[in-house]
Design goal:
The chain is α+β, with helices and mostly antiparallel strands. It has 2 domains: 1-28; 31-183, Immunoglobulin-like (Sandwich), CATH 2.60.40. Helix content is 16%, strand content 31%. The chain has 3 helices and 9 strands. The chain has helices at 3-21, 24-29, 147-150; strands spanning 34-42, 45-58, 61-68, 74-76, 78-81, 128-130, 140-142, 153-158, 177-183. It has a 7-stranded antiparallel sheet, with no helix packed on it. Strands 4-6 form a two-stranded antiparallel sheet. The termini are far apart.
């Protein structure tokens, strides 16, 4: 009889210790859906809000669901960048629109731009399509990303499209950065 209460106490103590050492709820929270605010950017800094992007996980990857207004119609390069900062001053001291966001998120040091399902930067995402009224509301899927992998990064929208290569222009040829969102919990 005395063995059962002691065993039960030890089991509860073990569960409490395990929960303290391995906080599963904290890990799961990193993958909860998240909404980020997108602002226009320029050489002088962060400008007006142009909408939001909702980030959520799907069994196939990261779903990026934009609700944006005020962009030029057509395809735009759309990437996760290294740093959670949309300011104009880069870590190396140079300046320009959203330069503080750094380069494309590339944890494996692929060193090349490619399609979202390829072997390039992990932050390479499908193009953002903007309609003739300047609105973007078509979701895209980034199969190599999750909400948890993009927290503490930035999403950058470029002026032009993206050919998913470094030729004839580096980083898909999207050109200047026109909008940016910091991804934070």
């Amino acid at each position: 009889m005395l063995g059962r209460p002691i065993q039960k106490t030890l089991t509860i103590a073990t569960a409490i210790t395990a929960a303290a050492l391995f906080p599963l709820n904290a890990l799961a929270a990193d993958d909860d859906p998240l909404e980020v605010t997108v602002h226009k950017v320029s050489d002088t800094g962060v400008g007006e809000k142009i909408g939001t992007i909702r980030l959520s996980n799907d069994e196939s990857g990261l779903v990026i669901d934009p609700d944006l207004k005020g962009l030029s119609p057509g395809a735009h390069g759309f990437h996760v960048h290294q740093n959670p900062d949309c300011g104009p001053k880069a870590p190396d001291g140079s300046t320009g629109a959203a330069k503080a966001a750094g380069g494309h998120y590339d944890p494996a040091d692929a060193g090349k731009h490619a399609e979202p399902w390829g072997e390039g930067h992990k932050g390479d995402m499908p193009v953002l399509v903007v309609d003739q009224s300047g609105n973007a509301d078509r979701p895209v899927l980034a199969p190599r990303l999750t909400v948890g992998t993009v927290i503490d990064r930035a999403i950058v929208i470029h002026k032009g499209g993206d050919n998913y290569a470094d030729e004839p222009e580096k980083l898909g040829g999207g050109g200047p950065r026109v909008a940016c969102a910091v991804i934070k919990r």
